[in-house]
Amino acid sequence: MPQPDFTDEIQHALKERIFVLDGAMGTTIRTYGLGEAEARGARFADNEKDLLNNGDILSITRPEVIGDIHKRFYEAGSDICETNTFSATGIAQSEFFVEDPREKGGRKDPEFFQKILENSFLNDLAWEMNVESSRLCRKWADDIGTDTGRKRYVAGAIGPLTVYLTNTPYANDSGFRVVTFDQVLAAYKHQVRGLIEGGCDILMVETIFDSLNAKAAVVAIQEVFADDGHRLPVIISAAVGLGGETMISAQKVEALWNAFAHAKPLAIGLNCSLGPDLMRPHLEELSACAATCVSCYPNAGLPNPLAPTGFDLEPRHMHDYMAEFAKAGLLNLAGGCCGNTPEHIAAIAKAVANFAPREVPVIQ
């Protein structure tokens, strides 16, 4: 069942201390050594496409693994854990369950994605993923919160999709888009309702590569709130390149804040794409302009296939970087994205524990 609106409670707590987010679901899943058969389970044993890289399916086929990951992150010190729903829309799941028309000389276009939106199997699957993933995370938030006497929260993860609204994939057809804004909006509305039904406390639009996709997600949230009479706090987080631009839409950090300020998010932040060293100047820029809380959960450095987690930085490194960010007054929420395990999050939690949260500026 939907949770109450904890906005006031969370805002008050964020004035007292830096909240700790969780780490990388995908990185941590890989440490369990699952194979294709384990990912499929009996239910999807005959699926024509591989499912091992479809981490969201594990909430259905291996819920004990996903539950254990949430448990470990909460035990490591996370105040907020994200649901295992980064790709839990019919549009994203079609990559794993529907034949790609490009394999036979066709192309993906709005007509193709309209059929995806009308596909009952994908709609039911996306709903189940969002509801069950939320319930899994909810269970461990409540259990660990009760055991430790410190309330824990569940954030419904809303990822960027595998298609983009800003750009065309065809250099000779600049006006073409594979999908329409209304189609993306419909997919996100379905996801938002599933996350709320599963018991999330927060909705997190994250790893934004394309600001127009994120706009559709925010509009979806607002329309669901208006239609269903239920509200939750919202966090918005972008992935940026070396120049501080969202990677598809090339929107700089200050422009990102200006584009989403109207939604009055609980927090806006940066995640993924860069390690903490490369993210710092962009975090400083965002911290200076955002009239709300700021979150930061960077990758554990840049990718390195020879490293145990696939990324260079160990827990001690993340501790030092995030302590530096906290000391500089840049953080209200801190965590880790790709390459960050529960051990990394424990180090981050320790790093920020003795620093005051960033003061939210009043922008005239």
Notable characteristics:
364 residues; alpha/beta; TIM Barrel
What is the gist of this entry?
The protein has 364 residues and is of the alpha/beta class. The chain has one domain: TIM Barrel (Alpha-Beta Barrel). The chain has 14 helices and eight strands.
Please count the helical segments: 14
Total number of domains: 1
* Gyration radius, rounded: 19 Å
| Residue runs with pLDDT of under 50 for 5 or more positions | none
| Cα distance spanning the termini | 40 Å
Quickly give the CATH architecture. Alpha-Beta Barrel
Q: Report helical residue fraction.
A: 40-55%
What class do helices, strands and sheet pairing give? Answer: alpha/beta
Under CATH, the topology can be stated as TIM Barrel
Q: Average pLDDT value?
A: 96
User: Considering the protein shown, what is the CATH homologous superfamily?
Assistant: Homocysteine-binding-like domain
* Helix/strand order, N-terminal first: HEHHHHEHHHEHEHEHEHEHEH
Number of strands: 8
CATH class wording: Alpha Beta
What fraction strand?
5-15%
Molecular structure report:
It is a single chain. This protein has 364 residues and is α/β, with parallel strands linked by helices. The chain has one domain (7-352): TIM Barrel. It contains 14 helices and eight strands. An eight-stranded parallel β-sheet has the order 1-8-7-6-5-4-3-2. It is globular, with a radius of gyration of 19 Å. The model has no long low-confidence stretch (mean pLDDT 96).
